[in-house]
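Q: What structure does this chain adopt?
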Amino acid sequence: MKYLSTWAALPGATAECVEKFLAGGATHEPDVKVLGRWHKVDGSGGFALSETDNPLSIYKFAAKWADLMEIHVDVVIDEADAGPILASVFKG
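A:
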């Protein structure tokens, strides 16, 4: 499964977030493949796309940052998978 994570530092936590990130704190569990990670140019947060069959690994990563960041994680599917389903549901 693929997971889209969004994050933003909690008020007053930006410096500590940067310190933790630079110290290697953004490392995921071995069973998580990070497909991409992007930071907003205004410094207010970012996005990551990850893939794993173990949602507990995504949960563990989010828990490690929960004291410093507001994190949201959504399960996402590829457009190639969504298209046929939408076509079958909304056939005219």
